[in-house]
Amino acid sequence: MESPPKLKRIPSSKNRRRRKHDIIL
To answer: How far apart are CA 1 and CA 12, in angstroms?
Structure first.
């Protein structure tokens, strides 16, 4: 499953730690 580039840059408090795994969201 490939997520769009927009999902890659989601400013989340929890995601902020794992910017590399932001795609998982």
So the answer is: 21
List, for residues 1-25, the tens digit of each pLDDT value.
566 666 666 665 565 566 666 555 5
DSSP 8-class letter at 21: G
Residue 1, domain extent? 1-25
- pTM for the whole structure: 0.13
| Residue 15: CB atoms within 10 Å | 15
What is the CB neighbour count within 10 angstroms for residue 10? 13
Work out how many domains the chain is built from and give that number: 1
